[in-house]
Design goal:
Elements lengths: L4 E6 L5 H9 L1 E8 L2 H10 L4 E4 L7 H8 L8 E4 L22 H12 L3 E6 L10 H12 L3 E8 L10 E8 L22 H5 L22 H8 L15 H7 L66 H7 L12 H10 L3 H26 L1
Parallel strand pairs: 1-2, 1-4, 2-3, 4-5
Antiparallel strand pairs: 5-7, 6-7
Length: about 375
């Protein structure tokens, strides 16, 4: 069926899921987020979409429909990832008492007001166990009450070409009884080899700790499919400046080989709080990436104290652009705001490449439905 598929992105952030849907063939008409810097990024990188700023609690279905130029029931797909901090395993006080855990109800409110054909909701895997499963059951029953048949599945970003170990729960459903198709894995055992850090970063200019060269040129021709894909039509690199780390951290990094971590740092150089750590603790802290491996999950703060965010060769933390590459953002995607805000935007995003696969699976499900209907009508 040859037609335009429309979408609206709630909790859109910088627009990772929007970008993935665009690549799949959707026209994303509107987005909403309360983060002002992320909104500037979204508006600058997706000019065809109308950005509605402010808390989702203040957004009405009527306003979204007006922004999209649609009537209730005409939207093909409503997507969104309610803020996940309340469900994250990194939040030791996580649970349904956290007000952020109730934001999925705002998503359901807007599903009711918009009546989209398809719904997609993304979150951290912790949502399945938070509150002893209360959140999961509330989401599923909420969709069911609105007439949607919804399934959920844990998707691994690395199995779809993203150079990062990242697990997310994705809910997909529709109100038309269409069979849900999940994206086929493209990378892994028996498939394409996983996309590595080398595939993602090896063509980017070298930097010293704290160095900011502004807009830069690539250091070589693209190596491999992934670099070519992410460069697109770009001829320069933006958002590629190194955070300035304290001299003690640079001294620590000198002792950490590729694939190493805090365990390789001499005892006298360890932070005071880590001198008492057991060898089995803090497995990712002060980790250095390896060229031929995957990244761990990109967080909202690529801080060497938090995880394996040290460049494979250079004694520095990875840049916003390198984090964006690991998340599969195209190089033309410029992140607005302070560097801290840029890292947050990248870390909070759905990897566009994963979003693309999800979008393609929805289009496939629709195509199968219409082809089956056509055959039945003959």
């Amino acid at each position: 069926m040859d037609r335009t598929y429309t979408a609206i992105d709630l909790f859109c952030g910088a627009g990772g899921l929007t970008e993935g849907l665009r690549q799949a063939g959707f026209h994303v008409l509107a987005g909403n987020d309360f983060d002002e810097a992320a909104g500037r990024t979204f508006a600058a990188t997706h000019k065809e979409a109308k950005f509605l700023p402010g808390p989702v609690q203040d957004i009405t279905a009527k306003a979204l429909l007006k922004a999209a130029g649609l009537k209730k029931g005409e939207l093909d797909c409503l997507v969104g990832g309610p803020p996940c901090q309340a469900f994250s395993v990194y939040n030791h006080k996580r649970g349904m008492h956290d007000e952020r855990s109730q934001l999925f109800r705002e998503y359901l409110r807007l599903v009711e007001g918009l009546s989209p054909r398809w719904v997609v909701m993304e979150n951290v895997t912790g949502i399945t166990s938070a509150g002893d499963g209360e959140a999961l059951q509330a989401i599923l029953s909420g969709f069911k009450q609105l007439g949607y048949n919804v399934e959920y599945k844990v998707l691994r970003a690395e199995e779809y070409g993203v150079p990062q170990e990242r697990r997310r729960v994705v809910f997909v459903g529709n109100r038309e009884g269409i069979q849900i198709e999940w994206p086929e894995k493209t990378h892994g055992e028996g498939l394409k080899p996983f996309t590595t850090i080398r595939d993602a970063l090896s063509d980017l200019p070298a930097l010293a700790n704290g160095e900011d060269k502004g807009i830069q040129q690539y250091v070589r021709e693209p190596i491999g499919e992934y670099q070519s894909l992410l460069r697109g039509g770009s001829n320069s690199v933006v958002n590629h400046s190194a955070p300035r780390l304290a001299p003690i951290n640079i001294e620590r990094m000198k002792h950490i080989p590729a694939g190493g971590s805090w365990r390789d740092i001499p005892y006298e150089l360890l932070p005071a709080g880590m001198k008492k750590a057991r060898r089995c603790d803090h497995t990712k802290r002060y980790g250095r990436m390896t060229w031929d491996g995957l990244s761990g999950t990109v967080l909202t703060k690529c801080d060497v104290h938090w995880g394996a965010f040290i460049h494979p060769e250079q004694d520095r933390a990875i840049t916003v652009r390198e984090a964006a590459r690991i998340q599969s953002f195209p190089d033309w995607f410029t992140f607005e705001g302070s560097r801290t805000e840029q890292y947050i935007q990248v870390g909070n995003a759905v990897p566009p490449l994963l979003g693309r696969r999800i979008g393609e699976s929805i289009l496939l499900a629709d195509a199968l439905k219409y082809s089956t209907s056509a055959i039945a009508a003959e």
